[in-house]
Specification:
653 residues; alpha/beta; FAD/NAD(P)-binding domain; five-stranded parallel beta sheet; five-stranded mixed beta sheet; 33% helix; 14% strand; globular; disordered C terminus; binds flavin-adenine dinucleotide
């Protein structure tokens, strides 16, 4: 992220134009990072009221002063008279972070920020994974990674940096997982892409703040290419079974190809990056198979189906419905939306905006700009919200909110909906959820209420009782005629490792422990009696309060690589997490989740299993998960000394 030599001169007339397009608040932080000017920080403080406040009310002379000083700073950097500074002191950093987001930032964010920022002394992802310090490895040590989605790619890159050999099994013909499979109209992120990207591989060229599927797929494809992962990926290899061999302390991983041939690999460790959101959930509605028109699940979209100009029925109003419905509505004859329960929806002014040239330039060329911007998004979209999602047992309105600030959030969200459809009380009553905000993942407003008001859109809240050849019948007897049916009904998530048969020590089957939908793991990563098995996006790791799943994936990889680095040295052949460590952790997960919004009785979501236990979401802040996964603690594990060498067998049948 070095300053570019051609464009940073103060004489360059374009420079001031480019800086004028950058966020003034982020420029302020750049300046204070270099100059430690606390007076300037204090002068600006009154103009920053929150994390999403970009100092719109800053007086113009103060704005111009900041821009001019940044221009001189860049000119100095360009001339070589100033270089990147070391990290500001902890005290100043805390003051800067707090001023930046308009809220006090607790001290535990200092190590996280210091490590994530590109301060000269901090280079690697979390301070622990260090490709040069892995020491001597057993020459035949190998890891089998299952899945080449975001998780598998992240793991492979960091294993490669640590010098640990691996092979990746991927059932699809391409990398990217979610971003390869989901091609429905409007598919994209609801997390800003400047944090929905690897911290070690930032993309300063995102065309939109919330990019669409094609651009995100290209990002993962390009990253995989850049790190040379393709040569290690076995595409079209659908892993059916992973079996631990007690005698050898190895895993036998069996994959099946579309032509029925099998590939078997023996590896010292197995790392599951199979994702949670990729097994489409099809609603159990009588007559679904009798519908004669095309049925399109959002996760299995068929671009050859023509829906334009037709009468389309859409079941589901969650994250994918929010994206696909408003995208299709302007092009269909009629869209009938079948809603089971409404969602809370928040709007973000950047949701439909392109990233301007000046912002892209600033991200690329101004030292620390991208770091500060990333921190702002991290805080604003995730941890700043966490405190308001705890139950206050003394709160008198626990049926609809959790505490005072959750109630304020609720009222603000309702006011926003009212400002858009308040003139239609019947519609308004249908779309306000009864459960507290954040009980289910908060959705980003993709012109949802505007869509519901369209002449050619109707929202149906009666239950679907039956589907006929050409219509959906609801419980009030109404017949809704349609030509195409869209299932925006999400995913089946209870089986965390999907249909793969996983056998640990003494042949124990993972499903016999987890059942159909009650998965548990230590830090969401390791399971007792399943030695050298590591899970990404595992139980209780979904960041349900917001933020980016990529942050958690990086935390998991950091932790896993440290364990693998020890194993690779060959003194020990196997580790498995101690039962009491695992159980204690899961007791804390359950106790904490019981205090959080996801466990609320009024919430029926994919975070919960059939018995109501929250198995998907992590109840803690991102910073907590980061600090627990920062350092792998060997004493949490049983260690088996190495006695037998691995014979590296690869067979085809
Ligand atoms: C439409 C959508 C939008 C999302 N938006 C956001 C967002 O805005 N912010 C956010 O934080 N998160 C978001 N997520 C969640 C999460 O970030 C993504 O799902 C992400 O892609 C997860 O990466 P993954 O690698 O863990 O899983 P996946 O992307 O699902 O990848 C798993 C890979 O494993 C492969 N695989 C599975 N089983 C096998 C097997 N048996 N053998 C071989 N290969 C196998 C799959 O083919 C796939 O390639 C979104 C999810 C979806 C579905």
């Amino acid at each position: 992220m070095a300053a570019s030599s051609s464009s940073t001169s103060i004489q360059n007339p374009n420079l001031l134009d480019l800086l004028a397009e950058a966020d003034i608040k982020t420029l302020l932080m750049v300046l204070v990072t270099f100059e430690h000017d606390e007076n300037l920080l204090e002068e600006c403080q009154p103009y920053i009221t929150g994390a999403w406040d970009y100092m719109q009310n800053i007086p113009s002379d103060l704005r111009e002063r900041i821009i001019a000083r940044v221009a001189y700073l860049l000119a100095d950097i360009n001339a070589g008279t100033r270089t990147r500074t070391a990290s500001p002191s902890s005290g100043l950093l805390m003051k800067m972070m707090s001023t930046f987001v308009g809220q006090p930032i607790p001290p535990e964010y200092i190590p996280l920020t210091t490590q994530q920022f590109s301060f000269p002394s901090v280079r690697d992802m979390q301070g622990n994974v260090d490709g040069n310090s892995s020491g001597a490895s057993k020459s035949d040590f190998k890891v089998a990674i299952i899945g080449a989605g975001m998780s598998g790619i992240c793991a492979a890159i960091k294993l490669q940096e640590a010098g640990i050999p691996f092979v990746i099994f991927e059932k699809n013909d391409a990398v990217g997982g979610t971003w390869y499979e989901n091609i429905y109209p409007g598919a994209g992120v609801d997390t800003p892409n400047h944090i929905y990207s690897f911290s070690f591989e930032p993309n300063h060229d995102w065309s939109e703040y919330f990019a669409k599927r094609d651009e995100i797929f290209k990002y993962f494809d390009a990253v995989s290419e850049k790190y040379g992962l393709y040569q290690s990926i076995r595409f079209g290899a659908n892993v059916k079974e992973a079996v631990y061999n007690d005698a050898l302390a190895t895993w036998k991983v069996t994959a099946e190809r579309p032509d029925g041939t099998r590939e078997v690999v023996e590896a010292n460790a197995v790392l599951f990056g199979v994702g949670l959101l990729n097994r489409p959930s099809v609603p159990n509605v009588p007559g679904l198979d009798k519908f004669l028109g095309p049925v399109l699940h959002t996760a299995q979209w068929d671009n050859s189906v023509k829906w334009q100009g037709k009468r389309v029925g859409m079941i589901g109003t969650g994250a994918s419905g929010m994206q696909v419905g408003p995208t299709m509505a302007p092009e269909v004859e009629h869209l009938t939306i079948f809603q089971r329960s409404p969602h809370w929806v928040t709007s973000n002014p950047n949701y439909h905006r392109k990233v301007t040239a000046g912002k892209k330039w600033a991200l690329k060329n101004i030292p620390y700009y991208a770091d500060w911007y990333r921190f702002q998004l991290f805080w604003a979209t995730a941890d700043s919200l966490h405190a308001s999602l705890h139950v206050d047992p003394t709160w008198p309105h626990l049926d609809r909110s959790l505490n005072e600030s959750n109630e304020k959030m609720r009222q603000a969200l309702i006011a926003s909906v009212e400002s858009q459809i308040g003139d239609d009380p019947e519609l308004l009553a249908k779309v306000i959820p009864t459960y507290p905000p954040y009980g289910k993942r908060m959705l980003r407003d993709n012109h949802w209420y505007h869509t519901l008001k369209r002449e050619n859109v109707s929202l149906v809240t009666e239950r679907i009782s039956e589907i006929k050849a050409d219509a959906v019948i609801t419980s009030d007897g109404q017949r809704h005629e349609i030509d195409v049916l869209v299932l925006a009904t999400g995913f089946s998530v209870g089986q965390v490792l999907g249909p793969i048969d996983v056998h640990g020590t003494q042949g124990i089957h993972l499903r016999s422990i987890w059942g159909e939908d009650d998965p548990r793991a230590y830090l969401g990563i390791t399971v007792p009696n399943f030695p050298n098995l590591f899970i990404m996006a595992g139980p209780n790791t979904s960041p349900a309060h917001g933020g980016s799943a990529i942050f958690n994936a990086e935390c998991q990889v950091n932790y896993i690589v440290q364990a693998l680095q020890i194993l690779a040295k060959g003194k020990y052949s196997a580790i498995d997490v101690r039962q009491e460590v695992h159980d204690g952790y899961n007791d804390r997960v359950d106790a904490q989740n019981a205090k959080m919004v996801w466990a609320h009785q009024g919430v029926n979501s994919w975070y919960k299993n059939k018995s109501g236990r929250v198995f998907a979401s992590i109840p803690w802040r991102m910073v907590d998960y980061w600090s627990w996964t920062k350092k792998f603690e060997p004493e949490d594990y049983n260690w088996r000394p190495a006695t037998i060498a691995l014979s590296d067998v690869t067979m085809k049948s």
